[in-house]
Design brief:
Number of domains: 1
CATH topology: Alpha-Beta Plaits
Distance between the termini: 27 Å
Number of helices: 3
Largest sheet: 4 strands, antiparallel
Helix content: 10-25%
Order of helices and strands: HEHEHEEEEEE
CATH superfamily: RRM (RNA recognition motif) domain
Strand content: 35-45%
Strand order of the largest sheet: 1-2-6-3
Number of strands: 8
CATH class: Alpha Beta
Shape: elongated
CATH architecture: 2-Layer Sandwich
Radius of gyration: 18 Å
């Protein structure tokens, strides 16, 4: 699956808007997507560093229009925690030389609500 097929749309609710301050973003994702797939797709689409992914299946609700009863479809929700404090990381090479990693990540997803 490609990244555009995995992430379907953002979920915008009062709770998800409050969690944005903590670096947690909520998405509607494909049912067959795994946590690893979701993390890679978010990193690719939004250029952020994903720390943690929580997923859950949301059951469809029973709806009624007049005398007709139907059911909305089940869907999968993912809460993605991103790194909001991106800094330079250092590591040692074989010779014992210290090297700094220069990866540039964003600290927020600006496209989440359409800002």
């Amino acid at each position: 699956m490609i990244a555009e097929e995995i992430i379907i749309e953002p979920v915008v609710t009062e709770k998800s808007n409050e969690e944005i301050q903590e670096g947690k973003y909520t998405f509607k994702v494909a049912k067959k997507a795994t946590k690893v797939d979701i993390a890679k797709a978010v990193e690719k689409l939004f250029n952020v560093k994903v720390l943690k992914v929580n997923t859950m299946m949301v059951k469809g609700k029973e709806k009624r229009v007049g005398r007709y009863v139907g059911k909305t479809s089940d869907w999968k929700k993912a809460i993605v925690k991103i790194d909001t404090n991106v800094g330079e990381s250092t590591y040692l090479t074989k010779g014992g030389k210290q090297v700094k990693a220069q990866k540039k990540y964003k600290t927020s997803i600006d496209e989440f609500i359409g800002a």
